[in-house]
Amino acid sequence: MLEPFYQDKLIEAGCDEAGRGCLAGPVYAAAVILPLNFYNPLLNDSKKLNEKQRYALREIIQKEAIAWAVGSVDQLEIDEINILNASIKAMHLSIDQLKKKPKFIIIDGNRFKPYKKTPHQTIIKGDGKYASIAAASILAKTYRDDYMLEQDKLFPQYNWIKNKGYPTKDHRRAIEYFGRCPLHRMTFKIKPV
Fold it and tell me: Which of 21, 103, 107, 115 has its CA 20 to 30 A from that of 84?
């Protein structure tokens, strides 16, 4: 059972990212403000849901959230500023786009840079504890998956339709055979298969 809010005095947004451990493509992040009475028994950390559940929940979140937004930072910038800074930047970009501004932000993980002067709290495994972070994890994951499925049409040899850019054996084997493409993060080390 997810907690609805970390605190209930201020308008609270939950933030999470997807694609941090990938070898290719952007890192995505989402920010979500849920209404006080929001409840869905399926809602959970996106990693604990199957694809069908994630996409069904995305529709519900987008319809019922007070505000939601998605941001991304591409692989070139990831190589330039590193993945941690890129993840935080993607979160800031998603918060920038919210139609209603939060007065408090909760973030999955243990690292964040202050967003303007908005108070915040990092929460380890927050996507399995708080509804708004779980909702953000679902949006970030599904929007990133959509992007990687599109890119698979251009680079089918890497099997992104299945691995979405994560360092699976088949992805690493394809990199060994075909080399990297422009979507790969050049600063990421690749373990041999």
Answer: 103
CB-based contact 91:32 (threshold 8 Å)? no
Instruction: Name the residue range of residue 137's domain.
Output: 12-147
Domain contains 63: yes
In a domain, 129, yes or no: yes
What is the arithmetic mean of pLDDT over 8-28? 97
CATH number at residue 109: 3.30.420.10
Mean pLDDT of 2-20: 96
* CA-closest candidate to residue 178, choices 150, 156, 151, 149: 156
Is 19 within 8 Å of 186 (Cβ atoms)? no
DSSP string, 10-77: S-EEEEEEE-TT-SBS-EEEEEEE--TT---TT---GGGS-HHHHHHHHHHHHHH-SEEEEEEE-HHH
pTM: 0.97
Domain-embedded: residue 164: no
- Does 178 fall in a domain? no
Flag whether pLDDT at 193 surpasses 90. Answer: no
pLDDT digits (tens, 9 = 90+) for 109-142: 999 999 999 999 999 999 999 999 999 999 999 9
What is the total count of domains within the chain? 1
CB-CB contact of 193 with 176 (8 Å)? yes
